[in-house]
Amino acid sequence: MPIRQSIWKVGDTPQPLAAARLASEQQLEDMIVANPELLSDELILIGRQEDTGRGGRIDLLAISPDGSLTLVELKRDRTPREVVAQALDYASWVEELDTDEIAAIYARFKPGGNLSADFEERFGVELDEEALNAGHQVIVVAASLDDSTERIIGYLGNRGVSINVLFFQVFEHGKDKFFSRAWLIDPIQAQAAPTERGPKEPWNGEFYVSFGADQYRSWNDARKYGFVSGGGGAWYTRTLELLSPGDRIWVKAPGHGYIGVARVTGQRQPAAEFQVKTGKGESLYVDVSEVEARLRKYIDDPEMTEYFVPVEWLETRALDDAVQEIGFFGNQNTVCKPTSKKWRTTVDRLKQAFPKFDD
Q1: I need a surface site. Which of 105, 200, 254, 318 has the fewest CB within 10 A?
Q2: 29-55 pLDDT, tens per residue?
Q3: Helix residue ranges per DSSP H, the chain
């Protein structure tokens, strides 16, 4: 069904803002280029009006912190069905881009820029060339969709194609205009399951979790108190919302390997509220943590604070005894729902390495 929004001026007698229009969809593209947060606060634009060599140009191309690419298509003067079909055609082109081609696209978009350096400056991590374009998603930007196109997008999403729609509306008040947006599909779902290269399989119901064990996050504490966590921005924390009590998770420490398997026992909680059991009863984790200083630095910032999910560990390993093999699945999302054949083969091998996985 069409998603419609209204904006009201607050007062004793609330007044609705009048609907308006942009001068052109070119203006919308210019706005996104000027401030990509109109789409997401966790994207770097790397291409604009790039020629696919197939008789068309993609509107915008972006990269996420996990190295996956996002193709953005504006509706312009096409019907919704036409823009979806065009976006899927372009996505087949994006899927085949290699590292050199992506770097060349970025060089044309930002002359003199260095993708690896700019990626690290923006996200605080190195760009893993192996993860670059390992997955991708499609975002269609439109003011509305017809019912048929919405059904098509739902059908594709249910079959592993990561495609979403950002609906936008424009309102005016006096001489000012305001832009609002709404997503057809919760962006968390799209982030957690980008369209991956290679053969696809139905999701096996088991979650992948990335646990960045470093000076900001203690694996010793995670094993002792029973939790996984993520922090440093919404992109790293919102996928923790996907986990529910009873879910089985396989936990990998980037740079080390797989370090544990667990059952989830609770919902996501911020550092200011997360409690753990100690010899003296329950305490706030921040009060007993090995990384207390880092936790307290952002504890009052809902965007940057650490978020925790309590778990019951079935089996764990020390970092220096992590399980890692060539070809194992990996991803920089804190939580994801992989649908690649690589995930199934990885889990099969992990069940041998962690025989208590179902205790």
Answers
A1: 318
A2: 999 999 998 888 888 999 999 999 888
A3: 25-34, 80-94, 99-109, 115-123, 147-158, 187-192, 219-225, 234-237, 285-288, 292-297, 341-353
